[in-house]
Inverse folding.
């Protein structure tokens, strides 16, 4: 005889509903959460603290209980843990990325040094083929004048598989791995960390970022070519940082995007936001995602390791 279960989500477990199924995110390991997809009926049982209505539902709940995704409700002797998911992990504006061009770099530096909001941020420089000494000197002067929290250097050499992360004084403190992951499965595009959850819940992937191109035009991201925030030659940095267009871009997260908002995996997804079916619409559906959250099929082949994914 099977014991009745009165389920609830486990400590530091988040339940996310999608169009056809739901997912449980277990954040006890904050560096990499476990994710378990479940039927919507099971999600309803967990949210309502009800035992399964039939044998299949009871088996699901027993599995989730044994795996640690849910707990059996008991009268608490102390206040149960509740995560504050609204706490911002990063400030509203944290980074400026710049395409360093010999002809325009001085103009960009002067533009940033006039700003009050550009101070204390992190700077990322995408370097040209050759970095003239004058441009390197100007970069160091910029970092000093805006009191940057640190900076990062990206090389134009495609054979270089890492970038250099430096502190305020220019000392190298880390190397960031840039090597692409050779994994065609959807698993390679999922990163269920607590930081990833917070970033996707609070807004767009580019929130807190401003990019300045070599053409002196300002965008939310280096890969974003369809949404302009302004122009260095006509708009001040502070006006752009406080502007409605940047606010709209920052707010265009997965919860508001077509298809993404119905996906139970949206808080763990790393897919590039710039690949939109309608480039002019920030809420447009992704153009390159193979997963269909509206499908009744499990699509299990998309989640297998690379070696197990059949090539076409």
């Amino acid at each position: 005889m099977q014991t009745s279960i009165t389920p609830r989500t486990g400590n530091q477990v988040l339940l996310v509903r999608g169009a056809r199924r739901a997912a449980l995110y277990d954040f006890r390991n904050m560096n990499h959460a476990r994710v378990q997809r479940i039927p919507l009926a099971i999600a309803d049982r967990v949210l309502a603290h009800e035992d399964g209505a039939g044998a299949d539902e009871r088996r699901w709940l027993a599995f989730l209980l044994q795996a640690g995704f849910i707990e059996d409700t008991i009268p608490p002797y102390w206040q149960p843990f509740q995560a504050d998911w609204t706490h911002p992990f990063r400030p509203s504006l944290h980074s400026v990325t710049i395409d360093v061009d010999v002809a325009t770099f001085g103009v960009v530096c002067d533009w940033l040094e006039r700003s009050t909001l550009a101070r204390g941020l992190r700077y990322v420089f995408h370097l040209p083929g050759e970095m003239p000494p004058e441009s390197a000197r100007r970069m160091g002067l910029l970092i000093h004048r805006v009191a940057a929290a640190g900076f990062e250097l990206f090389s134009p050499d495609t054979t270089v598989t890492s970038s250099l992360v430096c502190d305020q004084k220019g000392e190298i403190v880390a190397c960031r791995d840039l090597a692409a992951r050779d994994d065609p499965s959807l698993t390679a595009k999922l990163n269920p960390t607590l930081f990833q959850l917070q970033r996707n819940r609070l807004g767009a992937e580019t929130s807190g970022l401003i990019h300045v191109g070599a053409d002196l035009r300002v965008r939310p991201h280096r890969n974003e070519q369809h949404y302009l925030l302004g122009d260095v030659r006509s708009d001040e940095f502070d006006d752009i940082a406080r502007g409605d267009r940047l606010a709209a871009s920052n707010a265009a997260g997965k919860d508001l995007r077509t298809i993404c908002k119905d996906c139970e995996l949206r808080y763990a997804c790393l897919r590039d936001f710039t690949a939109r079916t309608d480039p002019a619409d920030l809420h447009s559906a992704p153009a390159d995602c193979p997963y269909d959250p509206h499908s009744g099929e499990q699509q299990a082949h998309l989640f297998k390791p690379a070696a197990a994914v059949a090539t076409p």
In short: The chain has a mean pLDDT of 88. The helical segments are 40-48, 55-67, 105-113, 133-145, 194-202, 237-241, 244-251. Residues 199 and 205 are 7 Å apart (CA to CA).
